[in-house]
Write a structure and sequence with these properties.
Layout: E1 4-7, E2 10-12, E3 15-17, E4 22-23, E5 26-27, E6 32-34, E7 37-39, E8 45-47, H1 55-63, E9 73-75, H2 81-84, H3 87-94, E10 97-101, H4 102-111, E11 117-120, E12 125-128, E13 131-137, E14 147-151, E15 156-160, H5 179-194, H6 198-207, E16 215-218, H7 228-240, E17 244-251, H8 257-271, E18 275-280, H9 286-293, E19 296-306, E20 309-310, H10 312-324, E21 330-337, H11 343-353, E22 363-366, H12 371-390
Parallel strand pairs: 8-9, 9-10, 10-11, 15-16, 17-18, 17-19, 19-21, 21-22
Antiparallel strand pairs: 1-2, 2-7, 3-6, 4-5, 7-8, 12-13, 13-14, 14-15, 19-20
Helix pairs in contact: 5-7, 5-9, 6-7, 8-12, 10-11
The structure holds MU-OXO-diiron (FEO).
């Protein structure tokens, strides 16, 4: 397999995972890539590795440029296994010294017993022949250990999980792929991986504001070399929690009653001229729903009562969303029950814990909603629509 030269003597030597469809609970219908990079020079440097099953693919690409034994140094920007999984065989093969952040050394020691690693400081520079690497700690993007590595002369920022997308492609650069697909996958990645860390994203932008960047060489998906502004501006907006006049209505249904309520609420919101997107969870993927929630101003969640609590698919979704801590969004809870309620109360508690602002009364109905109750749902949607427009 061949390497791709992305700048003079800088090569992409990663792996394309065409078949992965789930990434720790996040659906990846377009697959992914694990990007590793090789800098060839007086000191040959490998930046990150790949998921363990793809080690041979990485070695094959490296071998198209140089003998892997000539690698002197491996930089580990992030300890998560999709990037560090091949560090042990890579060190065995190359005998190279491994560098990571202090927290990275700590994390890698837990993951990979016996690995010899040295730590680098935040802001430290390292001369590699005629070029210089600079290390920039970026805690929580995506784990506490994470760091960027900047290749000073070429102005390439190896940005690890930052700006990535789960997108397998035979192309490597942003100007070679469909822009809408690229931004869709970048948004889905941010919503499902980085949403809880908006504050740290903003701090990182502040930290690198004087760094001139010509290329964002991410650890997943496509490398940004042409339209860096679109992804940087999108990250700034997402990190600030900026939203549009849009509502996402997420629900599931047992015998159709909660669905009738959801449909009337959606109609009510839309009647105010607000974009609305319903998702029935039994037919929807939670990571796709989160992508839509990223830019939505309101999240309206509905559940039938099952065993005095939330319907399982709704509980799954709410727990997932709670972990992603959406910011600055309006929330509302609704649902139906037969004999004894419970789902809507549990929903409210969990939506509040997820950080949503619930300023409306909950809407709960018994058995199949009648015509006047459907009207009540429509009016409830209208109130939500007005609130979205007013905020
Ligand atoms: Fe792609 Fe946080 O690992």
């Amino acid at each position: 397999m061949k390497a791709t030269e992305i700048a003079r003597n800088v090569y992409w030597v990663g792996a394309i995972d065409w078949n992965v469809r789930s990434f720790h609970g996040y659906s990846t219908p377009r697959g992914s890539t694990y990007n590793a990079y090789l800098i060839k020079g007086d000191t040959n440097v490998l930046i990150d590795t790949v998921r363990r099953p793809f080690f041979d693919q990485m070695v094959s690409r490296i071998s198209s440029v140089l003998d892997p034994k000539e690698i002197d140094l491996i930089i580990s920007n992030h300890v998560e296994m999709d990037h560090s999984g091949s560090l042990v065989p890579a060190q065995d093969l190359t005998g190279a010294k491994i560098l990571a952040s202090k927290r990275g050394v700590e994390g890698l020691a837990l993951h990979h017993e016996g690995l010899e690693i040295d730590s680098v400081e935040d802001g430290q520079e390292l001369r590699i022949g005629d070029r210089v690497l600079k290390f920039i700690e970026t805690p929580m993007l995506h784990w506490p250990d994470s760091m960027f590595t900047y290749l000073v002369e070429d102005k390439i920022l190896f940005s690890m999980d930052g700006f990535g997308q789960h997108l397998a492609s035979s192309k490597r650069f942003d100007d070679e792929v469909d822009k809408d697909v690229l931004m869709y996958e970048a948004a889905k990645y941010y919503a499902n991986i980085l949403m809880p860390f908006g504050g740290q994203v903003l701090k990182t932008f502040e930290k690198v504001k004087d760094v001139e960047i010509k290329m964002l060489a991410t650890s997943h998906g496509i490398i940004w070399r042409r339209d860096l502004n679109s992804i940087i501006n999108a990250y700034l907006s997402w990190a600030k929690g900026e939203t549009k006049e849009k509502a996402v209505v997420v629900y599931d249904t047992m015998w159709g009653s909660t669905q009738k309520m959801a449909e009337a609420i959606v109609d009510g919101i839309a009647s105010e001229g607000v974009e609305t997107r319903p998702y029935r969870l039994s037919d929807s993927d939670r990571s796709e729903v989160m992508r839509d929630i990223l830019e939505a101003r309101a999240v309206v969640v509905g559940s039938p009562t099952l065993n005095n609590g939330m319907f399982p698919s709704v509980a799954d979704f709410v727990i997932y969303m709670k972990g992603l801590r959406p910011k600055g969004k309006i929330g509302a809870a609704f649902g139906s029950f037969g004999w004894g309620g419970g789902a809507v109360k549990a929903l409210r508690e969990n939506l509040e814990k997820a950080g949503l602002t619930l300023s409306f009364e909950d809407l709960e109905m018994r058995y199949v909603p009648k015509e006047e109750e459907i009207l009540k749902c429509f009016e409830y949607g209208q109130k939500i629509g007005k609130e979205i427009k007013g905020s």
